[in-house]
Amino acid sequence: FQLPARVHVPGLSSALGRSPNTLVAVRRVLLAQYSPFPSNGADVYEEVLGSTAILSTGNKNLDKLLDSGLYTGELTEFVGAPGSGKTQVCLSLAVNISCELKQKVVYVDSTGGLSASRLLELIQSQVDSAEQQTDALQRIEVVRVFDVYGMLDVLQDLRTSFTQQVGERERGVKMYFPLGVGVWPIVLGSQVKGERMAIMMQLARALKTMARELGVAVVVTNGVVQDMGGGVKPALGRSWSYVPNARVLLQREAEMGSLQETKRSATVLKSSRQVTELHITGSGTLENQTATDALDNT
C-alpha cells in the first residue's frame, strides 16, 4: 500500500491538525526505513564475503563431503533412520565448535536425545583441563522444546537475543551459533494436514531467516520414510526438500566389534557446491556417480 502525498496530505493535515510539510517529512522517514532498496551484484557479493564463514565439523571425510564444512547463512540437514547416528553427529558438531573453534553453540533438543553425560564424554576426549572442559560446556546452551509452537517461540527468542549480543560487540566481530534442531517429530505432532503444511513452512522461514540475517550455521535433523521402490527417502515431503541448502543421508553400515564402533556412511543427497562426476558411455547414455564418503562414528 502506498500513500500518494500530494493527494491525501492536505486532507490529513486538516484532520490531524498538522502542517502538510510535517506529514510529508514523516512520510519520507517511513519510506526510508521500511521501503526496499535495490542493490547491485557487487554489493551483494561483498556482503556475502563479509558474512560467510566455514565451520569445520571435526571430521575430515564429512568436511570433504560438505565442501569444507558447515557454511554460515545456510541450513544443513542430516537425515536417517533411528540409530543412524544423527544425534551423535549433532553432539560431535557441538563439541568440536565449542572446543576447537571456541564458538557458542545453541542445541535445540526436540527429540529428547541429548545426553549430558555423552556430551561431557566427548568434551573430555578433546580437552584435558577441567577448567577448559567447564568453559566448553558453558559455550553449549541447551534448549528443550516439546512441540512446534514451542520451537517457533524459541527461534524468535534466539533471534532477538542474538541480535542484541552481536549489537553489543565491537564492529567487525562476528559470533556463530550453530543450531541442532530435530524438525521431523515436532512437525508431525500437528495432526491436521493443512495445518501441518502451514506450520512446516512457517518453521522453514524462521530457520532460513535466522541463518541468513544473523550469519549463523543452522543444522537440522530429519527422519526417513519408505519410497515406492522399497528404499528410503527423507521425511516431510517435497515442500521441505527445498528448504535445506545441503542434505546428507546417514546410514548404518556394519558392526565393528561394539556399538561404539559401528560404521556409518554419509551420502550427499543435495548440495549447491558438491561436484559430481558424469560419465558418457559409448552408447551415449549419461551416467552419474553419487558423492559418498564413509563417516566413522567416533
Automatic annotation (TrEMBL):
One of its GO terms (cellular component) is Rad51B-Rad51C-Rad51D-XRCC2 complex. SUPFAM superfamilies: P-loop containing nucleoside triphosphate hydrolases. Its main location: nucleus. GO terms for molecular function: ATP binding; ATP-dependent DNA damage sensor activity; four-way junction DNA binding; single-stranded DNA binding. Gene3D superfamilies: P-loop containing nucleotide triphosphate hydrolases (3.40.50.300). The keyword ATP-binding applies. Residues 51-224 form the RecA family profile domain. Keywords: ATP-binding, DNA damage, DNA recombination, DNA repair, DNA-binding, Nucleotide-binding, Nucleus. One of its GO terms (biological process) is reciprocal meiotic recombination. Belongs to the RecA family. RAD51 subfamily. This is RAD51 paralog D. It comes from Callorhinchus milii (Ghost shark).
